Structure formats: structure tokens, C-alpha cells
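*Target chain*
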Amino acid sequence: MSAATDEQLKAQVAKATGERTADAQVKKLKGDASNRSYYRVSLGPKSWVVMVMPPDAVKKSEEASKGEAPKELPFVNVHRYLTSLGVRVPHIVQYDEPAGMMVLEDLSDQTFEQALVTTGQKEQLYGAAVDLLATLRLTAEARPDPSCLAFTRAFDQDLYDWELHHFREWGLEAWSGKKPEGAERAELDAIFQRISKELAAAPRGFTHRDYQSRNLMVKDGELVVIDFQDALQGPRQYDLVALLRDSYVELERPFVEDMLRRYLKRIGGGDEGDFIRFFDLLTVQRKLKDAGRFEFINRVKGNPGFLPSIPASLRYVKAALDKQPQLSDLRRIVAKYVPELA
């Protein structure tokens, strides 16, 4: 079901908790880029969140992925694995699969993004998020689980390349109204392939895929990880790009590098220069994809809410290209269509 009546939502909470919910209040929560809807059902001081999922997209990722839809809801599958690792995730009170509805613990409205503003504790919050990410990565590398969907799919060359072309279609071409053709298009395709091949060659491990300020909640001083259903295998820097090159919160370069060094120390070291260079290369790929995705969400899904985050995404790409002289050919082409990248 893509929509739910107040009575259906109250009935789900009543079934999950045993509470009498006739007098409960229902409030639709602000949506994100997914096709899921969220509602808060409040009964006095108690409250729960009900996630509502459309039947035609319950199990398949909305972004490019290979193979058939998994037999189990990815949210439930990855939730079980993260719980086994001791990662704080929202408690599932009940999942009614036939109804496409899940009753969840209410984590309140305090996202990491909001906590940065309300607490002013930027260094403490980012330090905690980086430490959590390092611990998660190391623990997952030590305890892989083939039954977890995150270990059955990966950021391979095809996926990186698909995302770059997603930018080409919805960013470069949609914005400019022009298309690279002939030799120029062939050159761009080859550049995308080159970048994708280099990124795909890096060692892979458990990757959240969208570990950023709106997918971390702060409750009782603790970070809670959400929106993990698309987790897969990827390089260590991927979630760091999502967090430290977040399109919703811009950070200064020295602070970013401090956090990268903190992560390296937590995971046991590594060549700092190589680690940061790969971080910048991955930033180019990820933030181009984000910029294009935000336009796709606007034009195809009719949701313009992410358009204000496109300029920050492009600023990140521009700054990363400044650190990647070997990508001068990419910059030469894309800057013709997206002047912000010149």
C-alpha cells in the first residue's frame, strides 16, 4: 500500500503493542527520497513510527542493483546483521509483511544534522560518527555473514559506471539541454570507465552506502543508524565521503582531513596520502551521482526538496577535481555543460 488511513496505522500499533489506540494522534512525517512513507502514532507520552511501503518496491533497491529482488525485506535482513554486531539501530516492534507496514521505535526528530545546530558540538558529533563507522567496518570485516544481503552485492565497475551516467543524463544533459555526442561522448564514456575501474579495484567491506547527517539519529546522547537497507560491499572511504562530503552539511577541508586521520588511527593505520587521494577520487564519483540524482528526484518523482543541495555537491566535485590533476580530461568535458565545475 502506498498510503494508509489513520485507522489502519492505529490498528498496526494496537496489534504490535496491545495498546488501545482509538484516541491516538497520527502525524505524517517529512519524507525523504525513497518511496516509503512514515507516520508518528502518539498516545499520551508514548509514540511509535509506522513505516509504510508500496507493494511494488518492497524488496528491490530503488537505485541500480543486479539480480532478482531478495526474498526478505532488506531493511529486516540488514537490521538483523547490524544488531548482531552491537550497532544501535531502531527497534522493530512488529513487521506486518502482507500489509507492507512496520511499527518501529520512535527515535524522535533529532537527526545528526539537527544536533549539529542545536548542540554546537561539531567535533564531538563527527568524532563519534567516525569512531562508530570505524568500529562497524572493523567488526563487519571480522564477522562477515553470507546471509546478510550486504555481502551479496557490491560497488563493482558496472554500478560506479551506472551512477556516473546517471549524472550525465540528469545533471549534465538535463541541466544544459545539450548532449555530448560522437567523439566527445566516446571520450566521456572511456573516462567514466577508467574511474569506475579504479574505484572497483579497491578492497571492499561492509558499506552503509548513505552514512550521512540525515541517516544518523541522536537519541539520549547515542547515535542511531537508519536507512541501511541498501548496504553493500565497498571501499573504506565510501561512507566517509557520504559523511564528510555530505550535501546537507558543508565542512572545511582541514576538519575533513582531521576526521580522515582519526578514522585511519581507529582502523589501525594505512598510508595517509593514498587514503586521502582515493577519498577525493571517490568524492568526484559520489557527488556527481548525487547532483544528478537530486535532479532525477525533482523531475521524475516531482520532489524538488533536494535541489538546494546540488550546489554543495558540485562544490565538492570542483574541490576534489582540484586535487586530481589526472582528471583534467573529465573536467574539460563536463565544465562545458556544468560551468560550476570549471
About this structure: The chain has two domains: 6-63+90-105, 112-341.
